Amino acid sequence: MTTILAMDFWTSIMPNVVANKDVFIQSTWETIYMTLVSGIIAGILGIIIGIALVVTAPGGILANRTTYWILDKLVNIFRSIPFIILLAVIAPFTRLLVGTSIGTTAALVPLTIGTAPFYARQVQNALVDVDRGIIEAAEAVGASPMQIIFRVYLREALPDLIRTSVVTVISLIGLTAMAGAIGGGGLGNTAISIGYDRFENDITIMAMIIILAIVFIIQILGDLWARKTDHR
Amino acid sequence: MAANAPIIDLKGIDVTFKEADRTVRAVKNVDLEVAKGDIYGIVGYSGAGKSTLVRVINQLQRQTSGKVTVSGQNMGALKGKALRQARTKIGMIFQHFNLMNERTIGDNVMFPLLLGSKLSRHDKQAKVDELLDLVGLSEKKNDYPAQLSGGQKQRVAIARALANDPEILISDEATSALDPKTTSSILDLLKNLNEKLGLTVVLITHEMQAVKSICNKVAVMQSGEIVERGDLLTIFSKPTQQLTREFIETSSQIDAALANVVAQPSIQHLQANERLVVLSYAGASTDDPLIAQLYEQFKVTPNILFGNVEILQNTPVGNLGLVLSGAGDAVDKALAYVKEQGVSVRQINVAEYQAELARKAAEADTNAEGEA
């Protein structure tokens, strides 16, 4: 009885959402899939590039002017390209890599390339904040560069890396909303191509609510984790 | 290595930093020999090159030229793994402790043992417990650095520096961020480790007080050079350089006393037969009734303005500020006699001294502005 009444309530205020329930389930899944996969790949790339930037920078533990200069410029260039243009520009590369330039899987390539440099910069900032004296103390007890990277830099910067990762994932969710442009699907696509284009406002609002919910959950979990690991 | 060879032997060390528009020669042709078991103090104002010089010992700073020998090993020739291995035998502590914030106290001390030590996991734990016990912080093992006071953090840093059983401990301004009471407890700990473990300590500081309480040898650095060096007593009782004297006077508060004295009207208007002097003496001469002799032999009247006696390495070292007055050349004769007794004499021209004080105050202000 109550279920039917509740259903009536939702049908009355969000008729199109109820009618397109399956679309929502699918597009939510697409958003999560794109965020997760490109997040993991971009995360690994970003951490590697971020570490490389810090250790090869002047005064770093493996200072190397040329490597630093090249990485620094690459990161700047890729960060400067607007995502919607990046989608189009790297389409041939995407086709080469995943066999198609259209669809959810195809969207992973530009999402990863769009996110990795941004994350690399964030990782670099987090690692640079590790006190130079702590690095020097590790060198003084005979730590090797690899030991300093894994046992000092990443360990000491962990709370900041978690915070920074949250920011990156949230911005990545924002980017997935544009994946619709190449048939990537996802909640952003649903909001625009169904909600906005067909004047079905309740669909746009519902898509927004789901995205907000995902963002809030990630933010809250991230904050809790960062606080738990932070002993400064 | 010969039995009596110095454990640290620096020969002709030069360190030059190239900056965009200039080169800075931070260390200039420095020789330094530290014997096993020494507590060697290196004193100087900030920017004198002390930190750069000691970093050459463990090669955190490579020398531009010169030779570094530590425990018979030519450090400059070492690279990669061999250098890291050599570094494990040279512990180092720092002004800002440099502990890892995200590791517990126990894990901070454990850190050097995680880098390639052959000890079993159980033995490593036992070593950490032993070290924490040595510095008196066993009950803090599971705390994080943020929960500790400055003195406690430095004790953890000392335990960490000792984890690989080094023969040498370098202390880079390790007490400069601590209050006086904590400073002396840390210095006592270093002295204790020196006696108990035979640890050789190189201690850099800008506070002569620290040197005075534990070092047996001292070098004074200025603009990248060692301007004076020797054993503690000789340096304290017979400093030859102006800078050395400044450090000593600051630490024994002779400078404060003198500044007070020269501000007195009676001192500013000394008679022709009156002389303001500071006598410094060490060891046996403190026992002689010197002041009484001045009057008995030369009819010179000493007016004592200030004085202090300190015990350095079980030897009393004293400073006495006097106004001497006597007829004719009696004062000069008396001072010559005093010098013969092994007491160093410094005559102070009140007007010049005041001008000097004013100049220094102005200089200090300029420096403070520069730093701000």
UniProtKB/TrEMBL annotation, chain B:
Keywords from the named record: Amino-acid transport, ATP-binding, Cell membrane, Membrane, Nucleotide-binding, Translocase, Transport
ABC transporter domain: residues covered: 10-248
SUPFAM superfamilies in the record: ACT-like, P-loop containing nucleoside triphosphate hydrolases
Residues forming coiled coils: none
An MF annotation (GO) of this entry: ATP binding
Pfam families: ABC_tran (PF00005), NIL (PF09383)
Family matches, as Gene3D superfamilies: 3.30.70.260, P-loop containing nucleotide triphosphate hydrolases
Name used for this protein in its record: Methionine ABC transporter ATP-binding protein
Organism field: Furfurilactobacillus milii
